[in-house]
Amino acid sequence: VLDDYLNWERYLIRSEVDLPEEYQYQGRLYRLAPADRLYIAGMGGSGVVGDLIRDLSFVWGWPFEAVVVKDYFFRGGDGLMLAVSYSGNTVETITAAAAALRRGMPVIAITTGGKLAEMGIPTIKVPKASAPRAALPQMLTAALWTLRKIYGVNFDTPSSLPYDERLADRLVKTLGARPTIVAPVSMQGLAYRVKNEANENAKLDPSVEVLPEAHHNWIEGASGPIMAMTSPDIPAEHRTRVRLTVDLLSGEVFEVPMTVGGILTFLKHVGIATVKIALARGIDPLKTPRIDELKRRLP
Ligand code: F6R
Which of 31, 104, 237, 290 lies 20 to 30 A from 229 at CA? Predict the structure, then answer.
């Protein structure tokens, strides 16, 4: 898994994806046209693609409302859905995708295979990695190229994701202390990804608090260490909220450019740092036995 993170740039998709303008599914016609609402269904390491697209679409004003779906149940109306599942076998994602199709909504799959790849809907197959969370570059860029094709959105494709040992060390220290990760709404997806990496690689349980809402409740109860996230690219209102939090409570501030390159470079360091924490604790960063056991026990 460490090798995967170190080689992330190799997995970035750098060219357009092939998609039809329309397709037939179970005798019905679906058109892949821009819709005001974009649903992104997916769980865990695949679901983060939706979280990050929501952050990016907010920061860069993309021409759709990004709605993240992390459940079996899908009750949405008009729109377009991306169903992202590394394995292609995640029951919540497959069920939500089937529900969207029943409602006449076009669905595009992003996966390495599994049942999702066999549904007979447009599917972008991405290369495998050691774990779903390690396949973020290929899943995220596959989703972004899909959005380029349908909505014409612009994004950067970084040529490298440079490694900085000092940043990794700072993350080891900060995340090892099980902080509350504090981020504004515009960086919420990024904050959850940091938490998830600490959960799955390091087997730690930091929490996430989102601003400005957390200024109306959490701030009164806050007691532990704080990891604050900010960016030069987010609205001034959000930057101010982060600054005021750290002024009042102190905390380690991480500034992340909200570009594809900025996000993936930071998350590569988070991946490496959480693997380092696991190894220092004598834990296998790759194995996720509770997640596997839960999936086995599901009916
Ligand atoms: C991450 C991980 C999980 C899975 C999640 C959904 O490395 O193992 O968070 O991503 O259980 O499974 P997939 O990604 O196969 O849809």
Answer: 290
User: 93 CB less than 6 Å from ligand 1?
Assistant: yes
Q: What atom of ligand 1 comes closest to residue 132's alpha carbon?
A: 7
Q: What is the pLDDT of residues 211-239, one digit of tens each?
A: 999 999 999 999 999 999 999 999 999 99
* Mean pLDDT, the chain, whole residue set: 97
- Determine if ligand 1 sits within 6 Å of the CB of residue 45: yes
The residues that are catalytic are 200, 216, 295
pLDDT confidence bin for 132, thresholds 50/70/90: very high
Q: Where are the alpha helices (DSSP H) in the chain?
A: 2-6, 44-60, 91-102, 114-117, 136-151, 165-176, 188-200, 218-221, 236-249, 260-280, 289-297
Average pLDDT over residues 268-291: 98
Distance in Å, CA 45 to ligand 1 centroid: 5
Task: For Cα atoms 162, 225, 196, give the angle at the middle one, nearest 5 degrees.
Answer: 55
67-75 long-range contacts (CB < 8 A, ≥24 apart) are 67/37, 67/38, 67/39, 67/40, 68/39, 68/40, 68/189, 69/39, 69/40, 69/41, 69/42, 69/96, 70/41, 70/42, 70/43, 71/96, 72/96, 73/99, 74/39, 74/41, 74/99, 74/100, 74/103
Tokens representing 286 are 């790759």
Distance between CA atoms of 213 and 219, rounded to whole angstroms?
10
Cα 53 from Cα 112, distance rounded (Å): 20
> Using an 8 Å Cβ cutoff, are 74 and 39 in contact?
yes
